[in-house]
Write a structure and sequence with these properties.
globular, three-stranded parallel sheet, 5 strands, 100 residues, alpha/beta, two-stranded antiparallel sheet
């Protein structure tokens, strides 16, 4: 990245994927911007993640849900741990926190 004049934090998010973010930005800053733009209070935000790069987002959200297969760091900051992907963890989280 230095050759292109870019400074990015590059993190693996899946065995075959990487994500790059400029310094000082994270999924949390993006989610905070979106919530503010939509007039949604932080306490009303549900975030679901599974990796170290999701930790700031899970911490920022009113409710942070880690998937069952999540990294130890994501699990440590989550308010609740959902079943893994094979057991429809995201759907279970939505049923629990959104649909009641």
């Amino acid at each position: 990245m230095a050759e292109a004049g870019l400074s990015l934090a590059v993190v693996p998010s899946h065995p075959i994927l990487v994500e790059g973010l400029p310094p000082g930005l994270s999924k949390a800053t993006g989610l905070a911007w979106l919530a503010e733009s939509l007039g949604i209070e932080r306490e009303a935000v549900l975030a679901v993640g599974d990796n170290d790069n999701d930790v700031p987002m899970l911490e920022w959200a009113g409710v942070g849900v880690a998937m069952g297969h999540s990294s130890p760091a994501a699990r440590a900051v989550a308010d609740w741990i959902a079943p893994d992907v094979a057991h429809d963890g995201a759907a279970v989280a939505l049923e629990k926190y959104v649909l009641g």
